[in-house]
Recover the amino acids of this structure.
């Protein structure tokens, strides 16, 4: 089979397409003919040896996919030919194997590309904003990095539960349009005074929640953007640096900083993804959730997909296609 392979921990330049043996299965896994895989920030970090899971090269990357079931255990609840999405390792290839608990039926409302963009970002949004942050209907929200896959999924989930107004922080007007299409009510451009723009949009009060997958120097201004009793949810550090805060800032308006790591939570409770998927299904059925796809590249251009993330060119989700809709190789 064809597969993407990280051959050296040098980022996109160390990624190449190779021929490898198909993965083996002992009869307990779901074997999937992969159609599309999502590319996420952890994939980029892993290609540089900067992620907490650090396999030695060469290895096949990838953690989320959409495809067709080839075979599954009788007790798994899947039949050959079923459309599914899954989160598992080594899935940037034409064939992948996942544990039954990691596989979900792909709702008919979603395309293959949208299915490949569903699990990591939307599971993260539900867990971080609702489970950990307690976001509720009627609460205002500021989303940092609002045009990327994590940002747009956060906007859509917040909109689906009735939160708002939702403000998206972006670096360009073009990215602002992506956030608006995802459901953002207002857009603020990154500047030296963007926190003041957020406060102006909220009548000087600030927002109830900041959803922060960016970190870096935007973190502190995110805290300054909070209303009294507001909370900033720490999701990741796409900016590249891990920020620090003097905790007296939290006392000034009774605000909170909440750590939210979906992966760590799943490690402690493997049933969590299934429960979150069940929460997402009515949002998908209603049309509130429709993953924005920024780019779709064939498997042979997998390294270019990594570069889009590395060079901050990605808007929406970047997807790699292993197969066309008819099942033929890309």
């Amino acid at each position: 089979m064809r597969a993407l392979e990280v051959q050296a921990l040098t980022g996109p330049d160390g990624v190449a397409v190779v021929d490898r043996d198909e993965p083996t299965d002992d009869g307990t896994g779901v074997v999937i003919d992969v159609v599309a895989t999502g590319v996420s920030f952890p994939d980029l970090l892993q290609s540089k040896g900067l992620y907490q899971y650090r396999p030695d090269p060469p290895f096949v990357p990838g953690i989320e996919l959409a495809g067709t079931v080839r075979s599954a255990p009788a007790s798994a609840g899947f039949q050959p030919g079923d459309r599914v999405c899954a989160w598992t390792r080594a899935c940037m290839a034409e064939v992948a194997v996942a544990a039954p608990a990691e596989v979900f039926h792909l709702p008919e409302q979603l395309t293959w590309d949208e299915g490949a963009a569903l699990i990591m970002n939307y599971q993260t949004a539900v867990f971080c904003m609702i489970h950990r942050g307690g976001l509720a209907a009627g609460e205002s929200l500021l989303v940092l990095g609002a045009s990327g896959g994590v940002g747009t999924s956060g906007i859509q989930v917040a909109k689906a539960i009735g939160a708002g107004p939702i403000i998206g922080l972006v670096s360009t007007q073009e990215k602002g349009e992506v956030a608006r299409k995802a459901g953002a009510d207002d857009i603020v451009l990154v500047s030296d005074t963007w926190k003041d723009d957020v406060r102006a949009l909220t009548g000087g009060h600030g927002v109830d929640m900041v959803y922060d997958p960016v970190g870096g120097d935007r973190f502190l201004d995110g805290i300054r953007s909070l209303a009294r009793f507001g909370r900033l949810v720490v999701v990741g550090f796409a900016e590249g640096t891990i920020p620090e805060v003097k905790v007296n800032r939290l006392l000034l308006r009774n605000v909170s900083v909440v750590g939210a790591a979906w992966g760590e939570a799943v490690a402690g409770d493997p049933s969590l993804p299934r429960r979150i998927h069940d929460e997402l299904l009515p949002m998908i059925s209603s049309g509130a959730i429709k993953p924005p796809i920024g780019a779709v590249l064939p498997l042979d251009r997998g390294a270019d997909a990594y570069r889009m993330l590395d060079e901050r060119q990605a808007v929406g989700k970047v997807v790699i296609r292993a197969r066309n809709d008819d099942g033929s190789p890309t």
Residues 69 and 80 are 5 Å apart (CA to CA). The chain has two domains: 2-118+291-321, 121-264.
